[in-house]
User: What shape does this take?
Amino acid sequence: MHRFDLNKYFIICSLLFLAMPIMAQAQAVLQGKVVDSHGNAVSHATIWLADLKGEVADEQGVFSLAELPSEGKLKISAVGFETIWATWPSGKTTETFVLTSSTSDLETVVVTGNFEPQSARQSVYQVRTIGAEVIKNRAPSNIQEVLSTELGIRFSQDNALGSSNMELLGMSGQNVKILIDGIPMVGRQGTSNEININQIDINRIERVEIVEGPMSVVYGADALAGVINIITKSDASEKFDVKARVQEETVGNEYSPFDGKGTHIRSVTGSYRLKNWDFGASFSQNNFGGWKGEETGREYEWLPKDQNFLNLKAGWGNESLNLEYQLDFLDETVFSYGPEARLEMLDQEFITSRWMHRLSGRWDTNSKFGFTWQGAFTDYARESQTWVTNVRTGEHYQSQAPGANSTIDYTGFSWRMIGDWKIADKFKLQPGIDLNLEQGSGERIDENEGIQDYAIFLSGEWSPVSTIKIKPGLRKSWNSAYETPALIPSLNTKFALNENLDLRLAYANGFRAPSIRELYFNFFDASHSITGNPDLKAETSNSFNGSLDWKAQVNPTWKISTVLGAFYNDVKDRIAYGQDPSDIQVTTLFNVERYKTAGLTLNNSHSFKNLTANVGFSYIGRYNLLSEEQTIVPDMSWTPEVNTNLTYLILPWRTTATLFYKWTGALPGYETITDSEGNPSATEIMLDGYHWIDISFKKDFGKHLSVNAGARNILDVKQISSTSGGGDAHGGGTQRPVGYGRSYFLGLTYQLNK
Amino acid sequence: MQQYRFLTLTALMAGVTLFSSCSDDDPEPVVVPPTESGIIEVDGGGATYPNTAYIQFRTGTQTAVARESWDLAFATGSEFKVLINGTTGAMASATGETDINVVSSADMSAADSAALVLSFTNLEGILHVDDPSMPLSKPAIAAVNSTEASNEVYILSRGASGVEAKSLKKIRITRNGEGYTLQHADADAADFISVDVVKDNDHNFVYFSFENGIVDVEPAKDSWDISWTAGTSSTPYPAATTGILAYFFQDLVYQNIYGGVGAASVLEADIAYADFTEQDVNSLTFDSSDRLAIGSTWRNGGGPTSSPAVKDDIYYIIKDADENIYKVRFLSLTKDGERGKPSLEFELVSEDL
Assistant: This one.
């Protein structure tokens, strides 16, 4: 078992940075400054040069360029401001650029599904971004806290394993592709067969991009409901940067300082740039002390969890070539304490370790052709250990009983390469290849050859007139383990109806691959007879998406943005459990079910002086499978959600106050009941809705220090009830855990850079 | 508390040693006094709980027998009844035929086959198993009739709960004087084997295995008090055919009802285990008709956030065939973390006088 001592790592990191020679700054020939319309400096604006190399301005808005960009063109963007294209005036060595403010989502830069960072407004995809400012203001302790107040995202807590399952727009988490900087994550786990999104270091997350609807052409399997792309911090913009964060948080009413009860977050990050090189290192600890709730003995309602994260990276770049290697290590232990007993008490530990190596890069061969690649090798292992405490003798030892300890191992290799070929001003082609090799082994998984998936894809972007963009795409893949759909097509279009109004319409084919677990699972004991089905094929979907995006500036201080979206997904060959016809004792998986989702979303943002307000509404329908048998059951059951984000900058105090609110509406469904005569009938069941409020304050002290404080789950929600009569040994019963009650946090972030 | 028990145990072992050394010198048969207390690590065989373990408190001993070592249990005494092996989830269906050669599994419908599989989805399963509580009062195979022609052929599933499934058998049982005659064959076979079974009144049942003929399973009827086993149990379930669902449970405890053993339960909240004395016995009613009086009540089933565990608020009083009264409580479901190896402790409350 690995245990990390934060102090030790802090010392190692510190030595690492001290040991680096302090190098003279490269001589700048051009110096620019970015200011807002009042002439105040805009900190940390990004300067995109025409060759797509980026620079970032410092705290005072100052940036320097080693040479004049080609044709003198540069693009400047900053959070909260409209992006501008500017030309460096010839002959001048200093220049000031003025940005006009915007709401943060009016001009967001997105990368998901695009070849290069692109303004969200230009992208053919409707991309939802949770920006860096939002995350900073919120000071979350895990990514779930950030996502759970988003429209269309629901989490259900799996408190037996200390993890959670996600649902995006009515589709379960196994249909959502989780990417980290565009690289698919490996390690689907549990009965829900999904990536545990909380096994990502919250301190490394810069922003999150959510694309709704299938993106299987580019991202392949599992991008059926959508893609969540977690963009990590690049840090490389500063010469030298050290950041430390400490955050203490109560877990409901349980807390003890710095250790044990409560959530304790510690993180140190450093980065250093030397000519063409940049280096970074970060280490984080995130310890969750669990929550006892109603439990009085040794057990916990929410299991304690310790996480350690390490990230190391090195990058090299010049005008045409960029290369970056990153290593991410995760060590997570979830502690499940067994009940008090007269003789033997049994505790379990679930230990996850993940090594992820990433190599990404970009090469611009000339102004017409460039390509990017993202490769990753992941080694993911999840170990379950059983520990015995003998009450009478006081002995504590690891059980050696058969099945008491088990390990599941996944290794994954992925390599994606996308070219960008500008054939003409109005037409470009993006060919790509995508390799994904996955191996899974361990207890309850049959010997298998792994899954090898090779795919090529091609998309084109055609812009017949400047107001129209049409992006068709096709993907062809070959898979060693299951039958893949013949060809995956997609068509994304964007029409600028007028200066303020954009219309996007898209059709896409998506698919979800059967997982290693679904193919090769094998679990037979006296109470379980479950086997995978190696003959499964992929689930496929037809999806239609549309959105209308209206942005307007009412006056210099008031801006409005409204997005109205609609979607419809029709999934065929959904994989579901059923009885094996050759042996009805055995449960296995089949491509049998149908599933559909449909919905409307409406999002309205206002930016008025120091206030940003965002109100969203969604109405999502989920298909009732029972409607195929029971005429009284409607085709779809509908659920509303409302969310609101308010951000107010209290200028005299340099304090940002943020409020997040979400109402998750009741979720109806149908289940079969059988009367005393044995006749089945359908009955409506309902999972209660709930309201959730988080409030946070962020105040900057001087240049280096900022303090976050606030309260989460103000309404003290703990569980919601369901009228479902069903539920098995692994189900949640009629009460579903949602939260652990109102919690308070206080955090400090210290940043030093030059 | 802990130390006290340890001392009694040590004293007991010393006593046993002393006593046995005495008996070497003494040719006279000696009345062995009942064991006063002890801890028994039940030999259930492990996580797949392959064994049924028969426990006798008087001697502090247990006998472990593989659950799948037998197929049919022929009642002794005055009754002519035959039980199927509930500890493997066996099930039986009457065929309506009396000639074993005309019955074949080939004639069974899918529903007939499904009815012989013990599962949560088999809503009529309870009709095809021996009554889990009082097996002889409601056996799956009708009492063997003295009129030879009234005894039907049964299709027998030998059970697939926690054991390898085996192919179906067809059986027909008739009386043979004070004993039985069993005709049996594979369910698709054209001819059959005939076996005579003689009653042995020292035992509750005579056990028969299709592979090994008459086999030793249960100790003599006065030589065990309770048994721990996986086996067929039942639970109220409105959707089931009779409102009762038969299902397989891995931690059942039976008291020896046909050997005259009674059981009663006591809540810690009413009388603490340590405080229970002879005087408290009178307030109890001993159940010697429902063998599931202890059943599964000694442990919690576990749930989404908890694992199964021994209940610490209940213990049991056992009256053996000699009227010795023991208090018994379960300590653990595991041995070194391994399921199917529970532990219990017992203490003599009053001796038969």
Summary: The CA atoms of residues 72 and 177 of chain A lie 39 Å apart. Chain A touches chain B at residues 158-160, 299-301, 303, 338-344, 346, 386-388, 392, 397, 399-404, 525-527, 579, 583-585, 673-676, 678, 729-733 (CB under 8 Å). The two ends of chain A are 39 Å apart (CA to CA).
